[in-house]
Design a protein that fits this description.
- This protein is mainly beta.
- It has 3 helices and 21 strands.
- It has one domain: Maltoporin, Chain A.
- The strands form 4 sheets. The protein has a 15-stranded mixed β-sheet that branches. The protein has a two-stranded antiparallel sheet with strand order 11-12. It has a two-stranded antiparallel ribbon with strand order 13-17.
- It starts with 6 loop residues before the first strand and ends with a strand.
């Protein structure tokens, strides 16, 4: 719908009729206003709904090379008890009685407001966002293994919000060379935990003074596995006459925490499960031939960053892929 020449409005809705979960209507409204030829404002608001999938309910996977385990929610208790009986578990991070209730469907409402700017070879965007979740489905470490790896599963986080901003920019240096960069500032908190902190009802032990202290708002870090800062820098180069392209990607994330270590039910500055910030570098090249085939070769984590608590970064990982389009 175009009420004016510069204003475009899009409205839509999705209806989910689920046999296991309540029906859900998810409307969405988005608008874009063109300030001038180079600049435009855009905004949206919408509801979301996501039922647990088969992987989140019944997954049972152990990586034989690295040694970590991922368990679906419905099988987590039985499988974890089996691992305990086999002597593979060092300690249980999440009490098993917290996994008794069925995994609930996730619902949310999201707000976005952004501005885009295009001029010649530049294309930039700034976006502010806020998302409020009910029963957020997220991964969580539920136990640690004697081999130094972890057992992961899926849990609900009840009243959650995430908010922040994203900045993305692209610059076409030449006909074949393009650079892009991005940054995200993220605040992710549990509303009930935040209220407890504000009420002065959450405590921790200071390792230096060995005194019990009240956790203040600035010391409440937020949700597990969420970095406050993320950034990326990417380069793409194409050789059309050879049907070939190259890309190099640098990815950075600031520190984050894996689980609560002091037993107060949230992540704070006194926890000891923080992973320091790090940078990874990936490179890839691909070539199309015989029209329907694409060969890709590359390597991830070229800087060889390693941490036993990050199973998807065991070291430098090379790969070769061959795709065929029917």
């Amino acid at each position: 719908m175009n009420p004016t020449e510069k204003l475009n409005i899009i409205a839509g809705a999705r209806y989910d009729n689920h046999s296991e979960y309540s029906d859900q209507l998810s409307p969405k409204l988005a608008a874009r206003y063109e300030i001038n030829e180079k600049t435009a404002l855009k905004g949206s608001v919408g509801y979301g709904f996501k039922a647990p999938d088969f992987r989140q309910l019944y997954f049972d996977f152990t990586n034989s090379a690295v040694g970590y385990t991922v368990l679906g929610y419905n099988v987590a208790v039985d499988k974890l008890e089996q691992l305990q009986a086999q002597g593979q578990i060092l300690d249980v991070v999440v009490p098993l009685n917290q996994l008794d209730e069925p995994l609930k469907a996730e619902s949310s409402i999201g707000y976005n407001l952004g501005i885009t700017y295009m001029k010649g070879k530049w294309n930039s965007e700034v976006n502010f966002f806020r998302n409020d979740f009910t029963n957020l489905i997220d991964t969580r470490i539920i136990a640690r293994k004697i081999n130094g790896q972890n057992v992961f599963s899926y849990v609900n986080f009840d009243e959650i919000y995430t908010q922040g901003l994203e900045i993305n920019t692209n610059y076409k240096m030449t006909k074949n060379l393009r650079l892009s960069a991005g940054y995200q500032l993220l605040y992710a908190f549990d509303k009930s935990k935040e209220q407890l902190v504000e009420n002065g009802e959450v405590f921790a032990r200071d390792a230096q003074s060995n005194q019990t202290v009240a956790v203040n708002k600035s010391e409440y870090f937020g949700l597990v596995n969420r970095s406050r800062h993320n950034g990326n820098l990417k380069m793409f180069y194409e050789i059309p006459e050879w049907n070939t392209d190259f890309n190099i990607r640098l990815l950075w994330r600031s520190r984050y925490a894996l689980f609560d270590t002091n037993g107060n039910g949230l992540i704070d500055s006194y926890d000891s499960s923080f992973i320091d910030g790090y940078v990874t570098s990936n490179i890839a090249a691909s070539k199309e031939f015989y029209k329907d085939f694409r060969l890709q070769i590359g390597a991830n984590n070229l800087l060889n960053y390693r941490d036993n608590n990050i199973p998807n970064l065991p070291g430098i990982q090379g790969f070769i892929k061959l795709n065929y389009n029917f």
